[in-house]
Amino acid sequence: MALQISIKTHQSLQQLATEIRALLNLPPFTDKSFAGSPYCQFETLGMIVLVQCTEEEERDPEVIEYPYCFNIQFSFNEHTLDTDEMEYNLQPYYAQLLAFHLNVVTACYEKKQVGRHWQVRYRYFHKNPTWDGSILYGEIGWEPAVIASPPTPWRTMMPSAFSQ
Questions:
Q1: Nearest residue to 106 (alpha-carbon basis) of 29, 22, 21, 16
Q2: Which of 18, 124, 153, 154, CA to CA, is 20 to 30 A from 28?
Q3: Whole-angstrom Cα distance, residue 97 to residue 99?
Q4: What percent of the chain has pLDDT over 90?
């Protein structure tokens, strides 16, 4: 399983990858291309991090306006733990982290299995333009740093879309 976050920004792929590198303290990336689609790849601590352009026809309808995708593929040596669940739960964290620090709009999906089918919905995040870092949590006037929009309705995916 790979963690996947869609990103909406007007920046170039290299500019976005450079900002992600600085934010996450990653090593230098390599520019690559697969089937004509460019991407930037980082490798560190058993992780492969990809920042890539996503063709419009490859995007889900909920993220059709999100030209970039941030993926982390983990390589765990622990085979007795449910690492897929751990990775899945990191998606909202990274989506909010990127939205706040890079001032971009992000989206990540939630999934659930209903019978033989999978259902998916998306959650969207953006930096709160009125956030004031000098007001602490619990104080009058405090607002969250990142605003989460209501999730999209659940929709059914093809039976094999999320089979792992």
A1: 16
A2: 124
A3: 6
A4: 69
Q: Contact, 27 vs 42, CB < 8 A?
A: yes
What's the angle, vertex CA 155, arms to CA 149 and CA 161, rounded to 5? 115
Q: What is the dihedral of CA 145, 151, 157, 160, to 10 degrees?
A: 30
Residues near 162 by Cβ (< 8 Å), separated by ≥ 6? 111, 113, 118, 120
CB 143 within 8 A of CB 130: yes
> Which residue bears the tokens 């959650």?
123
CATH (residue range 2-112): 3.30.310
Q: Map residue 37 onto helix, strand or coil.
A: strand
- The residue written with tokens 């990540």 in the block is 108
What are 55-102's pLDDT values in tens digits?
Answer: 889 899 999 999 999 999 887 666 777 777 788 889 999 999 999 999
